[in-house]
Structures
1.
Amino acid sequence: MIREMLLVLPVLVPLAAAILSVPGSLVLQRRAAMVGLTGHLVASMLLLAVAARGEVFAVQLAAWPAPFGITFVADTFSGLLLASMSLITWLVLLHSTASIPERLQRLTFFPLAMVLLAGVSGALLTGDLFNLYVWFEVLLMASFILLTLGAERPQLEGGLKYVALNLIASAFFLTGVGLLYGSTGTLNLADLSRRTSELPLSFPRIAAVLFLLLSFGIKAAVFPLFGWLPASYHTPPAAIAALFSALLTKVGVYSMIRVGTLLLPQPPEALTNALLGVAGLTMVTGVLGAVAQTEMKRLLSFHIVSQIGYLVLGFALYSVAGLTGAIYFFVHVSVAKAVLFLVAGELERQYRTTDLTELGGSYRTSPTLAAACFVGAMGLAGLPPLSGFFAKLQLVVATLEREAFFSLVAALLVSMLTLFSMCKIWAEAFWKAPTSARVAAEDWPPAMRFATVGLALLTLLLGTFAEPLMTLAQQAAEQLLDRQAYLQAVLGGP
Amino acid sequence: MQAFLAITIGCLYAGAFYLMLRRSIVKLLLGLGLLGHAANLLIFATSGLVRFAPIMTEPGAATPPRVADPVPQALILTAIVISFGVLAFSVVLIKLTAAAARTDDVDSLRTSEM
């Protein structure tokens, strides 16, 4: 009973907090959000604690038996992502209470963030393909409004591209769902997995899987479908960008891994090779875009694309080692990227700009911020003993196992270029002689300081105590490739 | 009937992509609408094209040999409601964007990428 509750609470709590506080004042909305988030964090930590024991557990909503109703499932993979996203969202929203102008907060910022979190939780926990579509729409709708909050011109223009491409992705998703239902007669992921291993491979099913991968590819921003991301992610306030980078594209990759491993037990060689190529090109084009940028939030947006490439690489390798690396990378990159966006938020508050050429000398004026930025940046680049090192090491080992040497070269080269552009942020914003006077002289607000330093410490912890997380990631990867525990939890029987 | 529906769906997809590739912001919106219809109709086709046969019959009466699967129809209903909401949002977004940029040419909306 308690375990069943744990599966639905991460969706219900933020949704309830959002709906109940919408008519209230800003203070009420802020409090409701913090209460809802804390509830979400507790529920998802408990969920992870159960899932960490290696159990896969499911709940059939309204007691409709498995292939007919909607199933919610949690395994180590979804538990790990849910808990890490919950923690990051908690800290980022704490940051946003001080960093986002009150004028924008009044536009129902907090309820929208709660709806976003509910949508993400639903997408992570659902075991039904159509239900996944619904949760995607829930989180997209919230993100559309968050992205264009305030309706500045760059936001509107970036938002238009984001909305259009995501609507196309949703239509592709529906097309895939239609083809899959027409050829198998079910949309329950576990049931689909069982039936597809029995049925011979047919053209509609191949087309369906390709449509689904294409749709997740757009949502995850892989090469060559990432155009919307660097056009839009840098336009809202930094805290919203941090939230998006931790939640949105990651859900796209999550769905790709979840649906991919369930529907393609033995993927054709051509498909994994194509995915390896896509992963490599995503890494390279993303980082090359970042190297050319001098605006910090745009630079970080391009890095999101580049890091997505590493996640897809882990999936494309289709091995326990590769998925372990990808899952560790998920947690690492969400935290490290959030640190950097929050640092950008503080620089934006101090200088009213995040253009690196106009920044400088912050090492002297804000040493704590400089330290946080250094940890986040070097963590993202993958310097030991920070979290990125172990994530990349594991992925490199996995590529060696599969003898995918092009991917290996791409991964290492991109690491170098990442280090280069991280050094650029550090040198330009912190080390360089001051180029312009700071606009805001007052102190760093405590909420922003706590969130930024907290996330930086988390990067440090993930690196210095990498072992427990790596063990969990490996357990999650084994469950993903084995599938039996998942099928049994949803469908029952042997 | 099946061939007719297949051609219709194909035309809808083609029309949607043609409209979305135009430079006008309004045609982009119309294309997105059509694309949603195409996907919905595709799902509808999977329910089996059977006429006059409800899945629920009167008690005691024999079940008709072929009935249309009601699940895809429920799915489409959900999808239509969602796409209606999203499209309503897009209309407002496009109106605001066109007003802010003073143009309806998608190619000139590049302020956020400079």
2.
Amino acid sequence: MNIESILEGWLLNVVFIFLISFIGIFLGLLYKGFDRKISAMMQSRIGPPIIQPFRDVRKLLTKETIVPENAIEWIFNGAPIIALIAPLVALMYLPIGPFSPLLEGYGDLILVLYLLAIPAIAMAVGGFSSSSPYATVGAQREVVLMMSYELPLAISAITVAWKMNEIVGPETNPFSLQVISSNPIWGHVGLIGGLGIALIVFTLFAVLPGELSKEPFGQAKAKTEIADGVFVEYTGRNLGLFYIANTVQMIVLASLIITLFFPYQLSNLLERWIILQGPILPIVEMGVWALLVDVVFYLFKLLLIIYFGVSLVRVAFARFQIDKASYFYWVPISIIGLLGLLFVVVGATV
Amino acid sequence: MVKGKATYEVPIGPIHPALKEPFMVNFKLEGEKIVDADPHPGMNHRGIEFMGMHRNPLKVIPLAERTCGICSIVHQHMYTTALEHAVDIVPTERSRYIRTIMMELERIHSHVLWAGVAAHEIGFDTHMHFTWKIREKVMDLLEAISGNRVNYSMWTFGGVRRDIEEDMHPQIKETLDYYKDLYDKLEDIFLGDPSIRHRTRDVGILTKKKALELCGVGPTVRGSGVKKDVRIDQPYSAYPDLELDYVIPSRYGYENKGDVFSKTLVRLKEIIQSIDLIEQCVKKMPEGEITSEPNKAALLNKLKTASGEGIGRLEAPRGEAMHYVRLTEDNEDVDCWKIRASTYNNLATYAPMFMGEQIADIPIIAACIDPCIGCMDRAEIVDIETGVKEEYTKDELHELSVQKTKDLLEGIDR
Amino acid sequence: MPTSTIYLLIKQLFEKKATNPFPLKYAPDDMTSAAELIEKGDLDLNPPIDVPENYRGKIRYDKDCCIGCKLCVRVCPSEALVFKEEEAKVKHYVARCTFCGQCVNICPKSCFEFSEEFLIAGTDKNAEDLIINP
């Protein structure tokens, strides 16, 4: 291999990394706008225009960044950058619509789960370093909450991987996201297993608001209690970065759920349907059109998951106290997750 | 709790999202648990009494209602009745009923608004928007009757300034029916929703003993089972003619626990009670004049030299409140005007309610007495030369009072 | 968990929204150019909700019937009415008015009356239309 081709591949990867980051941020802000609009409509309000988050971010990025006197400056400024980078990196490992992940083969589900934990840690570290009592309380809550939802999250990942191991055999890495997405799990489990997987999906949906610090698990930035908690001292660019990080995190989580449980592509079905129609329809060259259909279908799936997992839940429940929230993840949700695992195992042996 | 565990302080206020008005509480915390709460009022002094003492009695009516944005009828009623008491003006029979209707409409408006604020404090904005949406209906009715959405300017000495005519009755009926239809839904949400229940039950408990000791008023203590309601204890306006009973949780098969849930229950049940009272009023309303002093110019001249002192008190949506007014012959303006709002009493109940609760419960407990700092903050003692705020102990205040009485007595002797 | 809140939310999603989009649904990007468009009539404004009968809007003052008895000045709580000695009429500062209507009630000649005009906010309290009988 000569140096030129290595350089070319490397350059292409850099271009793709920027492209995916850009798409991730764009989609994040777009769906944030959708989330705000639809929750406003559910509350009988008109709500902001869909592009409002773009305006908010533009404004935040141009504002002055204030660092509190007693804050540890480098941590305080570093936390939002880390918080943004982690979900963007996770996006490189996830299949987006019909496209396979950019860094295919370099990392798997376990890595993505670790990357998902980083924004929460960054928020907590940023909060602790900002020296405000409100931020300290918020950071403590963020850490407690993170420790609570990690268990159900891990249970869901393990269940999927265990089943995958059975489907694809011991040679293949069952944690590989490409493997998981090319073998839709629902087709391989029986009725009991299907029930188990449904419970696992429920568990993941329950973890969603906790990961994103949205109500009913918005304790870390509870506005009326501790005045936005971890973000109380954050302004300008730093706050804007946290804002973007949160939206990208939302896309990553929704994409993860799609990859694990709903990796279906519409183009396959469409193709089959066209073939079934036989000579009536002229044979359409799929190619680019198939890709387009799949992208639109992926965006639609994102929409549904964000609506049911984030928007609806966020407006339908009051904020829990932190001990109740922690209990909620440790006991009921973990039990539901374990039951799901049990059902999948039983379904496989029957 | 481990002994010797480090406590830290978190100030809530004077400006904080949980508080709608400037007010401050210093909290000592152990982790998330509150071990000490120290309220500091006095951030919202506007000198409204001072302004009132430099105006003639008629000018003070619109000023009095601006004491509070929500219970403006309450303050103008108290001021008006205090002055009527001082100079022996008797309001007409019809005006008493109109006043009662307005006060009960305002109670509905105030309680629905409170429910929205409470929902917002526990992070449930959906119900804030929902309750505030349904509140519009009663605001529209108040606007249709008085011409203003808030600060109604309806009261005058001897009666009211606008009549509730026969053609207004269908709109009143329609509004009341609207709330009757919605009431089940409200109760379903605020007493039945699981996430609201777990935020309000067993939170901020005020025992009956503490409630009596600390002299709390209104729904705050009725939630603890204290039978205290000026409308029944010392009825005013049209209340002697109406049928009503104390709203306490045990009347509806709940425990008189005194937690936030009980207070919510009391406020919700009072909405239905108000609807009932308004219906009674509309049915029993007598014919007649709406004011006993139609000639305002003559009244103004009469008040110029009138003297006397009077007290006006009522059951505001937040509890008992009181105005004191004194007129003297040689002073054309109101000589003395003192407001004692319900929040002043209820503030003392904060300390036992906060103790042992979590940070997360601070907003909802702070909101559960329906605080109105604008009504309450009457004085702040500041040493002008040094700028240091002084706090008086009970003994010092007693000393000052004795001294003041002695000075006054000397003046009489002379 | 299908709580009653969720039914309410789904219902409200499809209902007519409670917000009255007055004067525009969304704030315009550029206020100055939007104001120009409105002046030209190119931008349609959503109408406000109708005011009820007996609404307390901006007060009208009939200068000719005024006899200069000063009663209104004596009852105005916010000193919005100022007596002009040379003319024996009153001057009304709308920016100070609290719409209590005591002047309307006390005037022996009924020179004051409430209008239904409520769009009287402005940036200059001494603007021409905010002082009656200057």
